[in-house]
Design goal:
single chain; alpha+beta; about 30% helix
Length: about 350
């Protein structure tokens, strides 16, 4: 490939990324994001961004006109043929318009070109929450210190919750199952809403509405334990709205009724606990702070507590715990807070 061909390929990639960012900012109604500003600051990207704005503004104003709908369909076919044959575009305006049109009908996902099937990764820092709208209208509400990977194809919507917690509101599409892998549990749905919480080795799946099937990827023959009914002999676990599955290594997954308000309280900045161990509560609190709570004493870890706390308010949590439980807080040089039993 000549230097000219390489330069043209780089320009096409930048235009595709610029069009994808235009779609993402429009769908989320955000004027900008830190990730977008970082992309924009890279050499050459600002020029590509300016090139996309004109065609995009026109498409935005006339999106529902029959002529433009037909043009988008034609552009999609042209873009696919051009990519397959590696043709060079002679006019950046027609290329940018084609890219933006392809974006509008799902040809390009923000952050990359969908025909390459490259996954998108979304992360949040401590104390940050984020809502991501995917190309099919599905939404991911991502909790603090969480990480999710998304890979869409023509036949499947595959995600992985690498760490943390997320709520998934899934757009209905029976032809493209929506699956989320968390730990060794895979949740499969077509259109529903559910919450997944990964805390250490524990995976908690809560069905908010609809219907999902959960598969154990490690031990497919292990039967679940229903706290209210006999265990199912099947390795697939069907959840109904209001049910929760708790999976731990080397134990059969357990099903129980769920308090949906308590499970989803984090989406409004609160954490609700009902007679839970101090160890589990501390693990959830630590998701929102860089100064973690440390519990080394098993007796302290097994103490139980109930209450409602604001996410990120570690000082308030420590004050309440030391007031109502026989524990004291010792802050170390690194800022970590150790909870120890009172003498």
């Amino acid at each position: 490939m000549s230097d000219v061909d390489i330069d043209e390929a780089v320009k096409r990639r930048r235009l595709a990324e610029a069009a994808a960012w235009r779609v993402h900012l429009t769908e989320t109604d955000a004027p900008s994001t830190p990730d977008f500003e970082a992309w924009l600051s890279k050499p050459g990207n600002a020029a590509s961004w300016e090139q996309v704005l004109g065609p995009w503004d026109y498409i935005d104003e006339h999106a529902n006109e029959p002529a433009l709908v037909a043009a988008r369909q034609a552009a999609l076919g042209h873009a696919r043929r051009a990519h397959a044959q590696r043709r060079r575009s002679r006019d950046w305006r027609s290329l940018a318009a084609a890219i933006a049109a392809v974006v509008a009908i799902g040809g390009i996902g923000w952050g990359g070109v969908n025909w390459l099937n490259s996954p998108s990764d979304y992360e949040t820092a401590f104390g940050e929450r984020r809502v991501i709208t995917l190309e099919d209208g599905s939404r991911i509400s991502l909790d603090s210190a969480s990480d999710v990977t998304v890979r869409y194809s023509r036949t499947a919507r595959e995600l992985q919750l690498v760490r943390g917690q997320a709520r998934f509101d899934v757009a209905h599409d029976v032809e493209r199952p929506f699956s989320v892998l968390a730990g060794n549990q895979k949740v499969i749905a077509t259109g529903t809403a559910f919450n997944i919480d990964v805390t250490g080795p524990k995976v908690v799946v809560t069905l908010i509405q609809g219907h999902v099937v959960v598969l154990n990827e490690d031990k497919p023959n292990r039967a679940p334990v229903d706290m209210r009914a006999p265990a199912s002999p099947h390795h697939t676990i069907e959840l109904q709205a209001g049910q929760q599955l708790v999976a731990l290594p080397e134990k059969p997954p357990a099903l129980a009724p769920a308090n949906i308000q308590r499970v989803t309280a984090w989406t409004s900045g609160q954490l609700m606990f009902d007679n839970e161990t101090l160890a589990d509560v501390a693990a959830r609190i630590n998701r929102y702070t860089t100064n973690p709570i440390i519990i080394d004493d098993p007796k302290v870890a097994s103490m139980r507590i109930s209450g409602v706390f604001n996410t990120g308010d570690v000082a308030g949590f420590v004050d309440i715990v030391t007031h109502y439980l026989p524990v004291q807080a010792v802050t170390g040089e690194t800022g970590a807070i150790a909870l120890k039993k009172k003498d």
